[in-house]
Specification:
By secondary structure, the chain is of the alpha/beta class. It folds into two domains: 271 residues, Glycosidases (TIM Barrel, Alpha-Beta Barrel), CATH 3.20.20; 108 residues, Immunoglobulin-like, CATH 2.60.40.1180. Helices cover 28% and strands 17% of the residues. It contains 13 helices and 16 strands. An eight-stranded parallel beta barrel has the order 1-2-3-4-5-6-7-8, surrounded by four helices. The chain has a five-stranded antiparallel sheet with strand order 9-10-11-16-13, covered by helices on one side. Strands 12-15-14 form a three-stranded antiparallel sheet, with no helix packed on it. Helix 6 packs across helix 7 and helix 9 runs parallel beside helix 10. The protein is globular, with a radius of gyration of 27 Å.
Length: 505
């Protein structure tokens, strides 16, 4: 009887519950096509507010510490100084290949907490690694390739450790990818515009060199893999792996991205943006050279910047040195004021600076680079109100120094630029306008900020107050037809740059 009642109860409960509704899978917000991807907000407010990020060219190429991060390519060309250095120091590249440097990349001094702390003190709001340069060595714990920092060299997850340290400090994570050039695309030195050849391939396919090896393991480093397999397994596979494991806030691409088939660029974009929706994150994709549509990405200008206000937020990737992006012996480092001035100029024109540092192979960031970061951070700690969260005014500034045209093609000319106190850059936030002089003009100096002249604006400003940030001195000022006239106090609040805080009614 009890058994009968139990069966009856189960039947009644089943009848009451009714048929089980089939699960409905909601479609992903983004499809892998340009029209769908264009719905993405390219520049979320947090990115526009951040203004400064730091990344680092650090990897196996840091071991020889000679020439530049292009060492693994140029060591194969007999007409190059790096080739001659390699032969004299290590032997012929057919006998001592780039892969032989990997065990020497030890990173024993790398401390993710120390690095994240330094980047935060420098004033960066986001930071992260060159996840993979053209050389095919991954700076994260990878299952896609054996050539990664967790399995070789340092034998630690550089990206993972740093990501955790940044998250503790409420900083965003950027990962940059340069690996579109790693695929072996050509079989002739005649191909390409450079005399060296192999314009779209990082490693030359020379007879007798490891770059042409049939060793299955070496193929993963040197990109000697069939193109269709490489696009899916390597180019896309590595991106997917970093997205899944570290949830980066920004993914940035170097050039040659246009050599990746359009379908794969769309596939990556849709996957990243759909995953970000699941994480409830607003993420950013940065590209250069028009190899992704600008309607859902941010434009990057390498070692250069705009000479006018950008209609949309943009980025400059610039390095702390005057030469190589990676560490080399006797690397010439820029002055703290020069780096700060570049940041101020970029911000006044609706841009964001991604600043590169160059650690040594053992994981040490040299003291001269640290000092630049700390000097800039100290200034931002005192005057960051004029940088973070600001927007461009109607004009970016005034003064004699002008930036050239041409962007990266003219990067040597950008390197020569030296600003002075006569160069003024403007930003605004709410009822405040910040006028930053790129230097100290001296005590008792009369200045005229011409951007405030009556004939420039159809809607004349009414100024409530003017103060010099970092100074308690009372300023004399007057708004007239020629502009805003003011006098500097006896003591300088700062030598690198001074900020006038102008409140309007």
């Amino acid at each position: 009887m009890k058994k009968y009642l139990s069966l009856l109860l189960i039947a009644l409960l089943a009848a009451c519950s009714g048929p089980k509704k089939p699960e409905v899978n909601e479609p992903d917000p983004y499809a892998a096509d340009w029209e769908s991807l264009s719905k993405h907000n390219a520049s979320p407010e947090w990115f526009r507010d951040a203004k400064l990020g730091i990344y680092f060219h650090w990897g196996v190429y840091s071991v020889p510490a000679y020439g530049s991060e292009w060492y693994p390519r140029q060591m194969h060309f007999e007409n190059h100084d790096i080739y001659r250095h390699h032969v004299e120091t290590y032997g012929h590249p057919s006998e001592f290949g780039y892969h032989d440097f990997v065990p020497m990349f030890t990173a024993e001094n790398f401390d993710a907490e120390e690095w994240a702390d330094l980047f935060q003190k420098a004033g960066a709001r986001f930071a992260g690694p060159v996840a993979e340069h053209h050389d095919g060595f991954s700076m994260w714990d990878s299952e896609v390739t054996p050539w990664n920092v967790a399995d070789m060299g340092p034998k630690k997850d550089i990206t993972g450790e740093l990501a955790k340290a940044l998250k503790k400090r409420d900083m965003k994570l950027i990962t940059t990818f340069h690996h579109a050039k790693q695929l072996q695309r050509f079989d002739s030195t005649e191909t390409g515009s450079r005399t060296e050849g192999y314009e779209l391939s990082h490693y030359p396919f020379f007879e007798g060199m490891p770059t042409r090896s049939e060793d299955e393991k070496l193929k993963y480093l040197y990109g000697n893999i069939p193109a269709d397999q490489w696009y899916e397994e390597i180019w896309y596979g590595k991106l997917k792996e970093v997205i899944d494991q570290y949830q980066p806030d920004i993914i940035w691409f170097d050039y040659v991205l246009d050599a990746i088939p359009e379908a794969y660029r769309q596939k990556f974009s849709a996957y990243y943006l759909n995953e970000a929706e699941k994480w409830d994150k607003e993420v950013v994709i940065v590209r250069k050279q028009e190899d992704l549509p600008i309607n859902y990405t941010v434009d990057d200008l390498e070692k250069s910047r705009k000479n006018q206000i950008g209609l949309e937020p943009w980025m400059t990737d610039e390095t702390i040195s005057k030469g190589s992006w990676c560490y080399t012996e006797n690397l010439d480092i820029k002055g703290s004021a020069d780096v700060l001035h570049v940041l101020i100029d970029i911000v006044s024109k609706n841009g964001v600076l991604l600043l590169n540092v160059s650690p040594m192979a053992n994981g040490t960031i040299p003291e001269n680079q640290k000092q630049v970061l700390l000097d800039m951070g100290a200034w931002l700690d005192a005057y960051g109100e004029s940088i973070y969260g600001t927007r461009p005014w109607y004009t970016f500034g005034e003064g004699p120094t002008k930036e050239p045209e041409g962007h990266f093609d003219n990067h040597q000319e950008f390197l020569k630029i030296k600003y002075s106190w006569k160069d003024v850059r403007y930003t605004t936030k709410g009822d405040l306008i910040y006028a930053t002089l790129l230097g100290w003009p001296g005590a008792g100096k009369e200045l005229v900020l011409k951007a405030f002249a009556e004939d420039i604006s159809s809607d004349p400003l009414e100024i409530a107050s003017v103060s010099l940030m970092g100074s308690s001195a009372e300023l004399k000022w007057e708004l007239g037809t020629e502009g805003l006239t003011l006098n500097t106090p006896e003591e300088a609040p700062d030598q690198m740059a001074v900020v006038f805080r102008i409140e309007i009614r």
